[in-house]
């Protein structure tokens, strides 16, 4: 199978357990034997954030990697700490949201495309926000951005609020009693709609002010946190890098 290596965990003195995301088998865990030895033939082909063609032997508990060939190592991610951390964040989201052996080809394609976009984009905000919006859709958590989730009326252009608990946007009247709902600016709502309905080419042309960028990140991060019921670990390092 083809696979993106989401993460690698040490096992014993020389082995490692790989978490893989594949196009037609979903998420898998497999042992790469001897991969941490200096002369391992597998090591260069199963690094985290790489896309490889793998031969797996089915085992009782975990599959075993018997052969590997790199398809794309996404080299710019390995020379830029900020890009690498953004890519790790995307990989962590896929890992946290998915169960083993449940195929989701659109999500796999989105992850591969996002790793490529992070290699090319000047800034990572647009690729990451686009990834989050479409990841949520592919997993069945598409946020409602057109009609109020309280009264089902078409949303006005201003005064709306985003509610993670409701799964989208509330009008001013319905959102007034929601303590956890966050104000949603006109520009942020327009950007979210464009990203949700448009392709990446259209989204990549956006030039956003820092306030809107921060608002979008906060809204989507809050929604993801609510769905997972826990923090995404890599966000701490993202925030630290941004501060420094």
Question: Main sheet: which strands, in order across?
Answer: 1-2-3-5-4
Uncertain runs are none
Q: What gyration radius follows from the Cα positions, in whole Å?
A: 20 Å
Largest sheet, described in full?
Answer: 5 strands, mixed, barrel
Order of helices and strands: EEEEEHHHEEHEHHHH
Average predicted local confidence, pLDDT: 96
Beta-strand level of the residues, as a percent range?
15-25%
Strand tally, please?
Answer: 8
Given helix and strand content, the structural type is alpha+beta
Q: Helix content range of the residues, please? A: 25-40%
User: Total helix count?
Assistant: 8
Q: Tell the overall outline.
A: elongated
Q: End-to-end distance, in Å?
A: 40 Å
Please tell me about this protein's structure.
The structure is a single chain. The chain has 244 residues and is an alpha+beta fold. The chain has helices at residues 81-97, 105-120, 125-138, 172-175, 186-197, 200-204, 210-228, 234-243; strands at 2-11, 15-22, 26-32, 51-57, 63-72, 161-163, 168-170, 182-183. The chain has a 5-stranded mixed β-barrel. Helix 1 packs antiparallel against helix 8, helix 2 packs antiparallel against helix 3 and helix 3 (125-138) runs parallel beside helix 7. The mean pLDDT is 96.
């Amino acid at each position: 199978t083809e696979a993106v290596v989401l993460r690698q965990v040490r096992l014993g003195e020389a082995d490692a357990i790989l978490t893989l995301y594949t196009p037609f088998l979903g998420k898998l865990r497999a042992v790469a034997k001897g991969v941490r030895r200096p002369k391992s033939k597998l090591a260069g082909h199963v690094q985290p954030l790489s896309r490889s063609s793998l031969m797996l032997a089915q085992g009782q508990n975990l599959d075993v990697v018997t052969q590997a060939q790199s398809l794309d190592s996404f080299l710019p991610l390995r020379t830029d700490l900020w890009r690498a951390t953004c890519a790790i964040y995307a990989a962590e989201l896929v890992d946290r949201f998915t169960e083993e052996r449940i195929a989701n080809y659109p999500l796999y394609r989105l992850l591969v495309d996002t790793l490529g976009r992070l290699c090319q984009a000047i800034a990572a905000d647009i690729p990451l926000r686009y990834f989050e919006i479409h990841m949520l859709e592919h997993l069945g958590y598409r946020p409602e951005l057109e009609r109020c989730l309280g009264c089902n009326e078409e949303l006005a252009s201003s005064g709306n609020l985003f509610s993670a608990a409701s799964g989208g946007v509330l009008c001013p009247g319905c959102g007034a009693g929601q303590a956890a709902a966050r104000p949603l600016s006109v520009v942020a709502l327009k950007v979210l709609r464009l990203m949700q309905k448009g392709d990446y080419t259209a989204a990549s042309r956006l030039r956003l002010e820092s306030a809107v960028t921060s608002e979008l990140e906060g809204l989507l991060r809050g929604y993801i946190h609510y769905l997972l019921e826990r923090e995404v670990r890599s966000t701490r390092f993202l925030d630290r890098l941004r501060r420094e």
